[in-house]
Amino acid sequence: MFSLNTQLIHIRGIGPKYLRKLExxxxxxxxxxxxxxxxxxxxxxxxxxxxxxxxxxQATVQGFVRDIGVRQSWRKRMFITEATVADQSGxxxxxxxxxxxxxxxxxxxxxxxxxxxxxxxxxxxxFSNPVYEIITDERQGQPRHxxxxxxxxxxxxxxxxxxxxxxxxxxxxxxELLPDSIPKEVRARTKLPEINDAMQHIHFPPSIEDADxxxxxxxxxxxxxxxxxxxxxxxxxxxxxxxxxxWDIERVKQIIGVLPFELTxxxxxSLWEILKDIKQGKPMNRLLEGDVGSGKTVxxxxxxxxxxxxxxxxxxxxxxxxxxxxxxKTISDLFKGFDCGIALLTSGQQRLAFSGLEAQSKKAxxxxxxxxxxxxxxxxxxxxIQEKVKFNKLGLAVIDEQHRFGVSQRARLARDWQKxxxxxxxxxxxxxxxxxxxxxxxxALFGDLDISIIDELPKGRQEIITQIVAPADRQxxxxxxxxxxxxxxxxxxxxxxxxxxxxxxxxxxxxxxxKLKNSVFPxxxxxxLHGQMKPKEKERIMNEFRSRDHDVLxxxxxIEVGVDVPNATIMMIEGADRFGLAQLYQFRGRVGxxxxxxxxxxxxDSPAVSTHQRLRALLIAKNGFELAQKDLExxxxxxxxxxxxxxxxxxxxxxxKNLDLVKLARTEAVKIIQKDQRFKKYPLLKTRVEELRKRVxxx
Length: 699
Fold this sequence. Notes:
- The chain is α/β, with parallel strands linked by helices and 699 residues long.
- It contains 25 helices and 23 strands.
- Among the domains are: 102 residues, CATH 2.40.50.140; 206 residues, P-loop containing nucleotide triphosphate hydrolases (Rossmann fold), CATH 3.40.50.300; 158 residues, Rossmann fold, CATH 3.40.50.300.
- Helices cover 40% and strands 20% of the residues.
- The strands form 4 sheets. It has a 9-stranded mixed sheet, sandwiched between helices. It has a 6-stranded parallel sheet with strand order 18-23-22-19-21-20, sandwiched between helices. A 5-stranded mixed barrel has the order 2-3-4-6-5.
- About 1% of the residues have low confidence.
């Protein structure tokens, strides 16, 4: 008998060469192997008589090898193995290319199954490279590779699905009974199969219905564990204490009234939801979602100001120094004349602003001012929790583009800040995202958060004209860009890579910068920006661009989020097919923030129809949420969320598209937690939750 922890190196028949190939798929134990699930199935279940075979169809036949041999084709320099297999109705040829060893396996007189596609040549049908399997009743039960639904696995070079089936089948047959972590009552309510049946059926299903039920069972299990953690987190936070921050509605109206623009109804609604939360004395844990340019920062800033006026501090954490500085400038300008100290603290720069007056300051001095409570709103990167920063009285923590920090960081932030604060209250936590998140993902991955959505843009915002530019139209686009610059407008040009890569046919920033500067736009002022530059250099370039010292900014995705240059009216994206739709939407949102008509050009050299279909979704989507759903459908949750979410199991990731299954997992998780929050009756479930918590939350 094999256990899940049995190392494959100890299993007889699995040699060093095979082990090395399995290691490429990160398979080292029995657990790794049996949880390497098929991604599809070939239906070879029906055995067809040879006389009934039809060209271009998939079929399985059973017969005796009448003759077999190998010949060499000198013209194409390959070996051709050719056999004739016959049953009672007739005979058929089978041909394999560059597999001469088959002639020593399929001996004359052997009873075999052949499965594959039927070819047609000179009025004769034949099997081309069919799957073969010798049928010997004494040593074999049900076939593995033919005459059934045949599993097709993720493969690697030199390791085929047939080779995987060859080793998985006997291990499954000799596997000890697996404990089922899904409680019986949950399986009964959800009509899910027991784990041992599901494991057999996902690899070697009697029917496609059995395969689907097994897949659903394993997908539910992983979503269920994720949801248990979400529900646990929400309950834990509800048991903590936070500052009760009182506010006056007339004061809220006064602050909103002096803003240089009118808040939209969606902004006011979201602000109201936030203010109600921070009044409760329980830690707020809210996600503020909205389209690019919808005004999330202003909503968070007003909440931060109200918090500071009640004697508490507010912290803003951004994923990049460029965005952190942008927030510092925006909030400092908004609150000129208010008695509010604002600080910028990143690993590369630090500043202080009082009543809107900005000055550079030493890091030690900024940290001292935060500690003393003389700074009320502190803006920075992850340096806010990694540096020796002590907050005097932290009441509100805002995380911008929270998905960029990942699940583990988001889960730990409130606890980390609570440890650094002089008070032992939890801060109210507000996460913001300009990447609209489909409801399925929100419910699954952010189930511990309440959600506010800003679903309208500020008044007067013009639609951005978006076009896909083919190589033949490149010069026309360049001419249009030059004409816009001559009118006084500015241009963003985005490239996928910083330097040339031999593996990707993508325009690098350095290559494109030199080309544009010397050949395309020698008469324009062009500057380059990328993430590997020093913070002060990035800050200088962005300030110069905002001040119109440059006409064109050539950049990597460092400007994807938050950068605001109202005079920029053109976004040109090289290698647009290299980016996801949500990211392209973010890029496009960097323009269209001023009074002038803006344009977005999607450059692609790809002739693929699928590429143009995907990019056209950006042209027709009504809003970011609609586009995000399309991006999720096309690329899948893993690519949509990025590598930061890699702790989530693969099967759960794929299942995130299934809203009904996510809802079901959430419902069952709530029932279990309400019944037994400490999992005393469910030790197996407790172990699974602890394992996943370590992987995802890195505790």
